[in-house]
């Protein structure tokens, strides 16, 4: 007679139930890919933008336009308009700067100091016009334009999306699945059988780990093929960081599922856990943009630790050892959540 | 002696605390089930059947009272040992829609050190043809048979079934009965709950009628019916002659109770139900009186008394109207 192994059977059921659920497969594997492709195209590296200069019509306007056209790099798009129109275009963001030739010679600039491109425009236009008027540089300088791989938006985005995906996978794959079993009274039925709780927990976490590997693989592969985002560090280190992150969020998933008896409850809890991390943990933009006082709080979020570690390994080629703090932190979050979950868990 | 019983419980109580209010779901229930018996807990919705059976299954903890299952007590370090010898179907379990019958039966088989093969179990519940079908594609009756398979696959010495046929059509219900009887024939003990009186009569050697968390009567179905004081029920409806529908004035409970061989009288909508010892004595006399009262008979049926009648006699209530109809249609009684 065949030999039956409960953990093996539980794990098999977990895997089959997952791969036979098109929704789960889409949200785990498909959706992040769509995000990457969409955002990758939206934020693809464009040729440097030209500075849009409006010149107020009148005496000397043409001279200014000609001077800007002759300027070395010719990064200017200069046009002549009536004064009122120029002001309106600046206000609406159609122009970066307005140049008004003065009656006695010289120019006045109208620009918006809160807009970085406007400030840049003032410096560049002034520089170009001064040189055209005959200014000689006191010291010779040379500029080298370089674009480093790994510094594009897509490079920033890929590890962030990977982290986000691991977070969602852990919370859904353990939290939602557990409450769903409870709602269907399947959990109760299993507890009424001689099944070991340990085997059920192992199958939930084991299943999660198994789904993680293709998750990491597919995402990184697509990013490499479509956008040439390459892993600077070791692939193994990336996988280790990813798996540790997935473990951490699987622990959190079990915690949100510990007592919830309705799907709505666990969904609410999951959103409450995930939303702050989506916004703050540097998925789509760097958390450095938030005021520094918030940084310690933001770094305490597990997704921040995971994203930072993933970026360090994927983009900077950091070693696993250098990420010891993030890894320990993630493991601790997972272990503490797991412990609390077991303490509060409603089995039947 | 207690070790000889399959189930024994004494003064079982369970109080649910829901916010500030407390619900006494089970209040002082005693139960003894002999090995090899099929024992039925019979009662309306909310009687405390599920609470009782889940305490016996070791899923719920009682508020107080003693429980012994197969000679062992829950929470004394032998829970796994007990569970290996129990087969269970809960009142409601929804298995994964995406998994197949064979996968689920195999999963449950893997929890038991000994048991039947999944193939034999599927054959026993007549699901062999559906072995590779996903749960989402099964009918209600097939899902219930799958639940039974999960209960049977560990070859249980004691089978607990909580409302095994609720919501099933008569055909599916009979299939479930067949499976339970076949299991019973192998010498195992079964405890089931139901609110279908007929189901208890068909399946059970002994029944306990439960109401408001207490047992109000216990015995073999035949015993309980005999205790009614009459084994037959005569049901009739009558109108006053020519008077287009109104009941004849002289027709009342006292007059009917005075008829020979009648032991009880009750009213159900437009009909009167008489519990009688000897229909051949009571009916001619009833017809004679009705003629004297200027009453016209528009319906008359007789049937054997059922547990349903016992329940009504004991509680003064009938069961849920819908279920009662489904129940009597399954019996096929009538004129
Ligand atoms: N978890 C619970 N919390 C509060 N009250 C409950 C709970 N479960 C059952 N009850 C109440 O206990 C009583 C008995 O319920 P139950 O055992 O399910 O009856 P039955 O199975 O006979 O229909 C009912 O009044 C029910 O509302
Ligand atoms: Mg019930």
Model description:
The complex is a heterodimer of chains A (348) and B (335). Chain A has 348 residues and is an alpha/beta fold. Chain A folds into two domains: 7-43 and 149-344, no CATH class; 51-132, D-Maltodextrin-Binding Protein, domain 2, CATH 3.40.190. Helices cover 64% and strands 6% of the residues of chain A. Chain A has helices at residues 6-19, 22-42, 61-70, 83-91, 116-132, 153-183, 186-192, 197-227, 235-256, 263-280, 295-300, 302-315, 324-344, and strands spanning 51-56, 76-81, 97-101, 107-111. In chain A, helix 1 crosses helix 8 and helix 2 (22-42) runs antiparallel to helix 6 (153-183). Chain A starts with 5 loop residues before the first helix and ends with a helix. Chain B is an alpha/beta fold. Chain B contains twelve helices and 13 strands. Chain B has helices at residues 49-56, 79-83, 101-110, 118-124, 140-152, 170-185, 197-203, 221-226, 253-257, 279-292, 307-315, 321-331; strands at residues 7-18, 21-33, 38-42, 64-69, 86-89, 158-162, 189-194, 206-211, 214-219, 232-240, 262-268, 271-276, 295-304. In chain B, the strands form three sheets. Chain B has a six-stranded mixed β-sheet, with helices on both faces. In chain B, helix 3 packs across helix 4 (118-124). Chain B is elongated, with a radius of gyration of 23 Å. Classes of the chains: A alpha/beta (348), B alpha/beta (335). Bound molecules: adenosine-5'-diphosphate and magnesium ion.
Concise account of the structure shown:
By secondary structure, chain A is α/β, with parallel strands linked by helices.
Give the largest chain-chain interface (CB within 8 Å).
Answer: A-B, 25 and 30 residues
- On the 0-100 scale, what is the average pLDDT of chain B? 88
> How much of the sequence of chain A is in beta strands?
5-15%
Weakly predicted, low-confidence segments of chain B? 321-335
């Amino acid at each position: 007679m065949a030999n039956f192994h409960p953990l093996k059977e539980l794990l098999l059921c977990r895997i089959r139930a997952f791969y036979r659920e098109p929704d789960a497969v889409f949200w785990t594997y498909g959706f992040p890919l769509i995000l990457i492709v969409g955002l990758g195209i939206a934020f693809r590296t464009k040729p440097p933008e030209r500075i849009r200069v409006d010149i107020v019509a009148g005496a000397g306007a043409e001279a200014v336009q000609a001077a800007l056209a002759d300027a070395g790099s010719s990064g200017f798009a200069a046009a002549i308009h009536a004064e009122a129109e120029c002001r309106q275009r600046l206000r609406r963001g159609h122009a970066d700067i307005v140049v008004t030739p003065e009656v006695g010679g010289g120019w006045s600039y109208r620009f918006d100091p809160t807009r970085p491109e406007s400030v840049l425009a003032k410096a560049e236009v002034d520089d170009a016009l001064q040189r055209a008027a005959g200014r000689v540089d006191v010291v010779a300088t040379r500029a080298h334009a370089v674009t480093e791989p790994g510094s594009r938006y897509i490079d920033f985005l890929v590890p962030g999306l990977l982290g986000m995906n691991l977070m969602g996978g852990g919370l859904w794959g353990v939290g939602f699945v557990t409450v769903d079993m409870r709602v269907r009274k399947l959990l109760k039925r299993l507890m009424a059988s001689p099944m070991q709780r340990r085997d059920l927990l192992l199958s939930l976490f084991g299943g999660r780990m198994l789904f993680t590997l293709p998750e990491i693989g597919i995402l990184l592969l697509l990013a490499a093929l479509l956008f040439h985002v390459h892993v600077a560090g070791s692939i193994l280190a990336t996988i280790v960081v990813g798996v540790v992150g997935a473990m951490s969020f699987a622990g959190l998933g079990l915690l949100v599922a510990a007592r919830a008896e309705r799907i709505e409850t666990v969904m609410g809890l999951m959103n409450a856990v995930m939303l702050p991390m989506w916004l703050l943990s540097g998925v789509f933009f760097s958390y450095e943009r938030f005021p520094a006082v918030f940084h310690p709080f933001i770094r305490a979020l597990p997704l921040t630790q995971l994203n930072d570690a993933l970026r360090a390994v994927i983009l900077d080629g950091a070693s696993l050892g250098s990420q010891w703090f993030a890894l320990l932190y993630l493991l601790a979050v997972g272990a503490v959540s797991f412990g609390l979950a077991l303490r509060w868990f409603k089995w039947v | 002696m207690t070790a000889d019983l399959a189930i024994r419980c004494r003064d079982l109580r369970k109080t649910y605390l829901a916010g500030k209010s407390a619900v006494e779901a089970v209040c002082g229930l005693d139960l003894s089930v002999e090995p090899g018996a099929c024992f039925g807990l019979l009662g309306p919705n909310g009687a405390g059947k599920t609470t009782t059976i889940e305490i016996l299954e070791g899923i719920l903890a009682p508020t107080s009272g003693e429980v012994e299952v197969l000679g062992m007590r829950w929470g004394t370090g032998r829970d796994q040992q007990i569970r290996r010898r129990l087969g269970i179907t809960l009142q409601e379990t929804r298995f994964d829609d995406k998994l197949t019958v064979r996968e689920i039966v195999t999963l449950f088989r893997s929890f038991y050190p000994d048991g039947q093969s999944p193939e034999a179990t599927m054959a026993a519940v007549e699901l062999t043809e559906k072995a590779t079908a996903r749960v989402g594609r099964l009918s209600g009756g097939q899902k219930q048979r799958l639940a039974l398979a999960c209960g049977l696959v560990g070859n249980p010495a004691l089978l607990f079934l909580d409302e095994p046929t609720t919501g099933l059509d008569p055909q599916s219900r009979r299939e479930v009965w067949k499976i339970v009887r076949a299991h019973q024939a192998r010498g195992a003990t079964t405890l089931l709950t139901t609110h279908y009186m007929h189901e208890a009569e068909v399946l059970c050697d002994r029944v306990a009628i439960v109401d408001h968390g207490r047992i109000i009567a216990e015995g073999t179905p035949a015993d309980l019916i005999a205790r009614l004081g009459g084994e037959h029920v005569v049901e009739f409806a009558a109108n006053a002659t020519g008077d287009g529908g109104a009941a004849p004035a002289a027709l009342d409970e006292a007059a009917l109770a005075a008829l020979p061989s009648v032991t009880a009288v009750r009213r159900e909508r437009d009909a009167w139900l008489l519990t009688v010892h000897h229909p051949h004595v009571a009916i001619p006399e009833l017809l004679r009186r009705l003629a004297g009262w200027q009453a016209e008979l528009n319906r008359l049926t007789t049937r054997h008394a059922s547990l349903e009648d016992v329940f009504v006699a004991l509680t003064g209530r009938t069961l849920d109207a819908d279920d009662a109809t489904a129940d009597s249609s399954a019996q096929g009684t009538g004129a």
